[in-house]
Structure formats: structure tokens, C-alpha cells
């Protein structure tokens, strides 16, 4: 952002929207949850939710600072074995939004869960913003989404803070005060939120990778998997396709584990936005199953990849090969004309495991079957003739 005394119209709009999300939204959300869990009964609620709290503590969903806050509530009784502090409470009765908690709800979705998801999505979006200005259309659209959610959470009344922010004189002395004090504090809070989210992702990924390592014990190298291995070392984005049940997912996970031993961090994600959000200075391999839909092409997902294409390419170009993407895609989607003609990095390097150059030979099928039988200690329960018949 430029000097606060010389803000452009676009920067002023961005600043107002930033303040709406980080100055007004937390207070409204806090008031809503105070209504669900009245502060006067908070100790009783915490004590009754102790099992859930300890569960969240064990899974590292709640950070130390949050646990400290809960443990400081008068009247709470904590287990004597509790290590230096972690917590949370469950918010029961909130319906999960159609798109889940981590994506922007559908425009016409009306529920308190959708309102909270709207606030969360816009805060996260601002957290990873690389541009600090907005045009009038973007500002109006986003402002209306957040204002609608805040009004709903505030029992149908537009919060006074919303009106105040629209009146802020961001070209005068008030701009300097906001920039030097409140904005600094908000960014610090945002940094802590982002660090917590990254820690949760890392913990989840560690558990996933451990499960993959166990499953990989029965993986047998084929011509197709070797080709995938060669290609991902040559490029930074690779899509593996075939019909269902022919080993796409097992193949990319196997290659991912090989890259892990070369120093890559494995990061399973769901969207291009996740790649932008979770990129770090480390060597990273982003994995996405059914990248454009499980059964049919999802136009929404493909549009998202196209709109984020330049940003994704920029992310991959950082660090000279230290960022890679591997995805799976069903063959009928890979053959879709819309996918083939799309302006996206996804269709640049595609490997079809059913192509004649990758198709499983009879020997490979036999070895794969025997590998699975050995893992299940069943190799002595089947004759050579039965193996030959099944491949």
C-alpha cells in the first residue's frame, strides 16, 4: 500500500473492506457465540464439554493460546494429567454449509453456518491477498456478502461499525491512526491465525503420509508408474488419468513418497486457491485427487483453475523446481473437449495409464496380484494356475 495520505480510490476500497473483516466481523461473531454459550454459564459449558476439549487438544486443532484462555475461566476443572495447555468447545446445532466451512457459500444460501463461513472465507482471502486495491464492482460485491452475513448474525440489524467504516476519512489523519495502530494489530492477529492453520495442515498431512507409506508396501512398479516418475522430474505439473480402479491414486502417492525422500513436503489439497495459500519456501509437492470432479467435469472447478492459472504458474516458478503438482483425473473427463481446450496448466502434461505405452503387461498384472496376496499373507492359498487365470 502507498503512503496513507496518497491512497488511490482502489486502495481506499480495499482498506474499508479490510477493516470490515478485521474490525467489525470479530465482534459480531463473538456476540453470536456469546448468545450460544452465555459467558455466565461458560465454566459449566466448558466442564460439560471436557471430553470434546481434550479430544481437540489431542488432535492439535486448538493452539496453546486458546487453551490458556479457556483454562483461565473461573470455575473450570481440568484433568490433572493435562500438559501445558490446549482446548476448544463444539458449536452444536450449526448446519454445515453446502460448500463446507472452507469455501464461499452459494449466493442464495441462507443459514447461520453460511454466514460464518462467509466471514471466514473473506478473512482468509484477505490474508493471502497480493493486491491491495479493489475496483468498484469487486468492492460492492464482496462488501454486500459480508454485510449481509453480519446483519444476519446481528439478529437482522446492520451493525453500526459497518456504517462507521463507510464514513472513515481515509485521506486524512484517521488514515494514519488506522494504519499505524489498528491495521498493525489486525495483521498480527491474522499472522497467528495463519500459523495455526498451517500447523493443523502439517499435522493432518503427517498422518496421511504415514498411512500411504503402509499402503505403498504392496505397490509394484510398472511401465506407467516409471513414466510418471520420469515426467514429474522433468515438469512441474502432471495429471495422471485412466478409468476407475486402475491405480491412478496409488501411482501418484507412490511417486509422491519417492519425492518425499528427495526432500519434498507432501501437501494434499483440493483447489488452486489451496496451493496459493499453503505455499512456503520449502520444496513442496501438491497432490489433488479427481482434480476437476469425480464422475463428470465440474465447470466451476475448471473455471477456478483458469482464473488462477497465472498465479499458479508464478508459484511453480519460484525456487527453480521446488514446487510441483500431481493430480488424478478420470479418463472420460480428460477426453472432454472443454478440458482439452482449457487455458490451464493442467492439460499441458497428461499421462494416460491405459495408453498402449503404459498398459499393464500380463507379467505386471501377475506381480501386482502377488504383491497384494503377500501383504495379506494369502500367497500360499492360490495356485500358479489360479494366478494365471486371474490376470
TrEMBL record:
<dbReference type="Pfam" id="PF20720">
    <property type="entry name" value="nSTAND3"/>
</dbReference>
<dbReference type="InterPro" id="IPR049050">
    <property type="entry name" value="nSTAND3"/>
</dbReference>
<keyword id="KW-0175">Coiled coil</keyword>
<dbReference type="InterPro" id="IPR027417">
    <property type="entry name" value="P-loop_NTPase"/>
</dbReference>
<dbReference type="Pfam" id="PF18738">
    <property type="entry name" value="HEPN_DZIP3"/>
</dbReference>
<feature type="domain" description="Novel STAND NTPase 3">
    <location>
        <begin position="219"/>
        <end position="374"/>
    </location>
</feature>
<feature type="coiled-coil region">
    <location>
        <begin position="180"/>
        <end position="207"/>
    </location>
</feature>
<feature type="domain" description="DZIP3-like HEPN">
    <location>
        <begin position="91"/>
        <end position="157"/>
    </location>
</feature>
<dbReference type="InterPro" id="IPR041249">
    <property type="entry name" value="HEPN_DZIP3"/>
</dbReference>
<protein>
    <recommendedName>
        <fullName>DZIP3-like HEPN domain-containing protein</fullName>
    </recommendedName>
</protein>
